[in-house]
Amino acid sequence: MLELKGITKKFGSKTILDNLNLTVTDGKILTIVGPSGAGKTTLLRCISGLETVDSGQFLLDGQPFDPATNRDNDAVIGVVFQDYQLFPNLTVRQNVTLAPTMVLKQSAAEANETAQTLLAQLNLADQADLYPYELSGGQKQRVAIVRALAMRPKLLCYDEPTSALDPDLRREVQQIIVQLRDEGITQIVVTHDIPFAEAIADQMLRVEAKS
Amino acid sequence: MHYVNEILPSLVSGTGMTLSIFFWTIIVAIPLGILVGLGMTTRFKPLTWLINIYVWLMRGTPLLLQLIFVFYGLPIIGVVFQRYDAALFAFILNYTAYFAEIFRGGLQAIPVGQYESARVLRLTRWQTLRRIVIPQVVKIVLPSIGNEVINLIKDSSLVYVIGLGDLLRAGNVAMSRDVTLVPLVLVGVIYLLLTAVCTIVLKRLEKHYSYWR
C-alpha cells in the first residue's frame, strides 16, 4: 500500500500539488483525472522519483520511503511513459532484459525466460527480436509495459496511456490494465480520458487546475 | 615510369609520417573528445567555462599557428617538444576540440526521456551512458566524425612547417629538385587513395549502425 501524506510540489512560485493526501490500495487501479496543467503528470513524476517534492511524506506498506533517492535492489515503482521511451538501439527482448540483468543481477537465462513469458502474455512473442522502430504504436506501448513489469514493481504507473491510440487500441490497453489488476498488480493511471478512467478505475482522484 | 619508381620510396616514407600522425591523433583525440564532450554537458559551470575557452582557442585559430606555437613558442616557457611530439600534441589538442563539439551535439540530441526511462528502471548513470546513450550518440555523430577524419588526413600536411617530412613535403622536395609536377600528381593520387579507404571504412561503419533507427 502506498500512502502520500501532505505532498506539496512547487515550480518557482507556482504551487502544482498542494498538501495532497492519497492512498493507493494494493492490487487496485487508481486513476488520476483532470484537465491539462492540473498537475497529474507532476504527481506521477513525484511518485516515480523523477521530481523531488517540496514537503510531504511517502509511505510504502507503512514504511517511509523517498522515491527520488530509492536505489536499493528492491524494485518499487515502474513507469510507462506517454511516449514509451523504449531504447531504440536495443531489440524488444534487450529492452526488457536490460534492467533485470544489470540492476537486479538476474542471469541472462532467467531474465530471458521472464521476458519471454511476459511478452507472450501481452501478445508480443513474435516481436521479441525486432527493434522499436519496427513496431506499431500499440506494440511499443505493450513493450513499455512489459519492460516495467520485468522489474517486478510493487506499483505500475501510466502517463496518458491512451493519448496516442485509436479506439481499438484504447480498448486493448484497457483490457491489459484490467488483466494486470486481476493478477494483483497495483496500478496508477494518469489520464484526461474520463470514460477510459471510469471504465478501469477502482478508485479515482480528480485534480483541479490551480489558478 | 622509371622516374616514378625513383621517387616512390621517398613518397612512401612521407606517407608513413602522414599515417602515423593520422592514427595517433584519431586514437587519442576521439576518446578525449568524448570525455571533453561529456564535460561540456555537465552542470558544473567552471568546467564548462574552461572547456568553452579551450574549444574557442582551438577552433578560433589556424592549426598551422598552433603547430608553430607548440614547437617554437612553448620552449620560451620551458616546455620543449621534439618535432614529432610537438606535431602530435598540437594535432591532438586541436582535433579533441572539434570532436568534443561533435559529441556534445550528439549527447544533447538524446531526448531527456531516455535518461528518465533508464532512471525509473534504476540503471546507474554509467550503465545508462554505456548501454543507451553512447550507442545512440555514436550513430548520430558518425557522419560528422567522418568529415573530421578525412580533414585530418589532409591537415597532416601542415607538419612541414616544423620541419617534419610528410607526404606533401616529400612531393615538394622532388618537385623542386627535378623541376616537374609529376611528384605532386603522385602525391595527389596517394591522398585520394588514403581518403578513399577512410570513406569506405566510414560507409561500412554507418551501414553497421543502420540495423536500428
TrEMBL record, chain A:
Superkingdom: Bacteria
An MF annotation (GO) of this entry: ATP hydrolysis activity
Keywords attached to this entry: ATP-binding, Nucleotide-binding, Transport
Family matches, as PROSITE patterns: ABC_TRANSPORTER_1, ABC_TRANSPORTER_2
Keyword Repeat: no
Signal peptide feature range: none
Coiled-coil regions listed in the entry: none
Domain called ABC transporter: residue spans: 2-209
Matching SUPFAM superfamilies: P-loop containing nucleoside triphosphate hydrolases (SSF52540)
Protein name: Amino acid ABC transporter ATP-binding protein
Annotated source species: Levilactobacillus brevis (Lactobacillus brevis)
From TrEMBL, chain B:
InterPro entries: AA_ABC_transptr_permease_3TM (IPR010065), ArtM/GltK/GlnP/TcyL/YhdX-like (IPR043429), MetI-like (IPR000515), MetI-like_sf (IPR035906)
Chief site of localization: membrane
UniProt keywords, alphabetically: Amino-acid transport, Cell membrane, Membrane, Transmembrane, Transmembrane helix, Transport
Domain annotation ABC transmembrane type-1: ranges: 15-202
Single Gene Ontology BP annotation: amino acid transport
GO molecular function: transmembrane transporter activity
Entry's localization field: Cell membrane
Source species, domain of life: Bacteria
Gene Ontology CC entries for this record: ATP-binding cassette (ABC) transporter complex
Protein's UniProt name: ABC transporter, permease protein
Natural source organism: Levilactobacillus brevis ATCC 14869 = DSM 20054
